[in-house]
């Protein structure tokens, strides 16, 4: 499919790419096939796709996988895909907001192995990336397209501008790799940013267990919530109730963490140890 063909198909249906939803449609079947291969999708795999758009990547995934569950929020795109998307019978099209879908239950219903492959809508890429972390133990891995700026945040290391809670939580759950960049010319409409394919492979065992996730996330987000403050002050500002100052300083001393440091100076493992030490105290 060409850029002009995408434009014509949208116009025929009275549709347009909605910027508020971050819709930028992949239209080159060759690029879609490369993405499916890089996932890598095998004949025995089931795939969860988020944001199929006009189905270019969906068809490439279906050519390799035993089952594809494609989640699309846009009612107009769902109608278009059902009526003229040429989707094979082993593709289930789900009209829903992926943020509201129980992805764990969906993965369980598909049966292992399951992979997530998606051109994530720019507008909701961060919350979707966080949601995918809850699929550990249910998926073999994910390959997603995000803005390059988001990809840099995912792989950032301590003492860098991009390092934050997103990088920490991912480092404690999955191994993240930047696979390749895709220029704006691969999409319609062409975005103003470069997109990056990011692969995430679950760590086995992962340092962060599923039952710890919410508590650790709360501590980590508070630690990075006011980046210019020292760690004790950031936690005091971001947590309700906040930790007892004397107890917190004792914890930092026991962990060998300088109380004058900021969260961005700490490795993911140090932040995990801190969160565990604060469990039940704030």
CATH class wording of the largest domain = Alpha Beta
> Average pLDDT across residues?
93
Question: How many domain units?
Answer: 2
Strand percentage lies at: 15-25%
Query: Roughly how many Å apart are the termini?
Result: 55 Å
Low-pLDDT segments, ≥5 res:
none
Structural class: alpha/beta
User: What is the 3D form?
Assistant: elongated
Query: What is the third-level CATH name, the topology of the largest domain?
Result: Rossmann fold
What order do the helices and strands follow?
HEHEHEHEHEHEHHEEEHHHH
Question: Could you state the CATH homologous superfamily of the largest domain?
Answer: Vaccinia Virus protein VP39
Helix content: 25-40%
Q: Strand order within the widest sheet?
A: 4-3-2-5-6-9-7
The CATH architecture name of the largest domain reads 3-Layer(aba) Sandwich
Radius of gyration, Cα only, in angstroms? 21 Å
Number of helices: 12
The biggest sheet amounts to:
7 strands, mixed
| Count of distinct strands | 9
